[in-house]
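For the sake of transparency, this paper describes our internal protein records without simplification. The remainder of this section carries one protein's record, kept here as part of the documentation:
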Amino acid sequence: MKRLIRSALFVPANNPRAIEKAAQLGADMLVLDLEDAVGPDDKEGARGLIPGTLEHWQTSGALRAVRVNGADTPWGAGDLRAASQADAVILPKVEQVGDLHGARSSLNAYGSSVPLWAMIETPRGVLNVAAIAGATGTGLGGLMAGVNDLARLLRCAPDHDRAAMLPHLAQILCAARANGLYALDGVYNQFRDHDGFRREADQGRMLGFDGKTLIHPGQVEPAHRCFQPTAAELERAAQIVAAFTDPANAGKGVINLDGDMVERLHLDAARALLSAGSGNDP
């Protein structure tokens, strides 16, 4: 069963209190952030917290990830080695397939098969996202939209509907779906604006994202409410499965279900939805 990843909470690696609290929040993914959240003077010390953090998060039920610094920084190589025992390694500002292969090669040398996740947060990354998502031999597990950096580099004017960002989000999502990868929407910065978060999360789900990256503990539960399959969706999926299971419909590719023409592709989607909605076991 493919586990739900509705929430991916970034936790500053230099904030022990936040690290401790994160284990109790019920997030689907916890991301120890060595990159944006940590200043240059603190990066070496923050890296040293990786083993203890991964151990502390062991019983959280979350996918335990580390966002490392880029390979073009003084800290990237050391971060990869230290993060090699995580459940996932998140690479920032991935712009080309070579970024993935370089990280994969280093992790292989450390004896680690940990999956990689790619943050797409630059114009070049968006232009190359299809090749990045389709690259073989990289162990890529998912894509994350890095909306803050992308908006800054594109010089997008901020707006509540993210109209300027939607074409780029759609490219990231399409590349992920074409290659069977997770796709997570970007962060919402106004963490006290609960209505705004809900609107943006609803938009992300409408687009097709699996979940959302988060910057505040208070965003975990609302993200779960938004990206969790609803009771009505689960009921309809169960009806579709039951209809195709009916011996009267054996061998049929298309059936009439309450006035809707339902195909076997809808059956596959219904089964996947029921599987996802039944739990979040690793």
